[in-house]
Every structure is written in C-alpha cells, then in structure tokens.
Specification:
Layout: H1 3-16, E1 20-24, E2 29-37, E3 40-48, E4 57-59, E5 83-86, E6 91-94, E7 110-111, E8 116-122, E9 125-130, E10 135-140, E11 146-148, E12 153-158
Antiparallel strand pairs: 1-2, 2-3, 3-4, 5-12, 6-8, 6-11, 7-10, 8-9, 10-12
Length: about 160
C-alpha cells in the first residue's frame, strides 16, 4: 500500500463517518481511527510493516499525512516459530496460586493441553488460565503481579 492509497483511505474514513478502519495483509497492518473532538476531526494512522517500518503518524487534516520517522531495522525474531498463549481477559497476572507457592509454569517446563499455567485476577475473582496447546514453555512474557490486557501475550510455547 503506497502513500496515495493511505491518503485516499483517510479521506474515505473522514467522509463516511466510520470511527475505525483496520486493514491487515501479510506484509503490513494499518489502523485508522477517527475521533470527533468539539467539531475538530483528528485521524490517527498506525502502519506496521515488517520490511518497511512507518512510525505512527498523527494527521490533523484528512488529506495530509506526516512522513514517517527514520526507519529502524526490523528485528528478525526466532519467536515466530513459537505459539503464544494470550490473556483471555483484562486483570492482574499471577504466576502462582499464592506468594509462597512455586510458579505454575516456568521456562523449560513441559505443559499439556488443559494444564493451568497462570492465574488472572479480575474483579476480585481468580481465574485459572489453562494451556490450549501442549509443548514446552520457552519464555514468560509478563512479570508476576502485573496488569494484563485482553489478548496480551503471556507465554511463548514450543509445540515441538
């Protein structure tokens, strides 16, 4: 997707009254959010591409698009071969059932489908989060007792 197509998309969002448009293809992702604040329309454009990186651009007028900042070299990650266990809810992430107990899942542990790997506290309720896959924990992505968002990655699992 080139700059002209992005500008046309911003114009479309502006004219149509749509509040958010998200397009994702294999090599990039673009999110355009329109907010109406006291008769002034603002559009936020986020573009994510693995080979060419465009920084978030804040656009005051629908026809103007800010030029991206200096591109950073994308990090080629070996994490792509792993499966991510994500948070099914918003809450506080705990690795163990209580502070004096060992962690439910550590790096290197083998897990089976249905095994409890962590707990998320939401509205004073402690919810067991079970693994949806079998494999070996490669990385814990969240610190203990940290807040987590819906769909936030928690663990990387090697299914092999």
């Amino acid at each position: 997707m080139n700059l002209t197509e992005i500008q046309d998309l911003i114009k479309f969002v502006s004219k149509s009254g749509v509040s958010e448009v998200e397009i994702e293809q294999k090599d990039f992702k673009i999110v355009i959010k329109a907010e109406n604040k006291s008769k002034k329309e603002e559009h936020t454009v986020y573009v994510q591409a693995p080979q060419q990186i465009a920084a978030p651009a804040h656009v005051a007028a629908p026809a103007a698009v800010a030029t991206p900042e200096a591109p950073k070299a994308p990090a080629v990650s070996e994490d792509a071969k792993y499966i991510t266990i994500k948070s099914p809810m918003i809450g506080t992430f705990y690795r163990s059932t209580s502070p004096d107990k060992p962690a439910l899942a550590n790096v290197g542990d083998s897990i089976e489908k249905g095994k409890v790997v962590c707990i998320i506290e939401a509205m004073k309720l402690f919810n067991d989060i079970e693994a949806e896959i079998s494999g070996r924990i490669v990385k814990v992505l969240v610190d203990d007792a940290s807040p987590v968002e819906y769909d936030q990655p928690l663990f990387l699992v090697d299914p092999a």
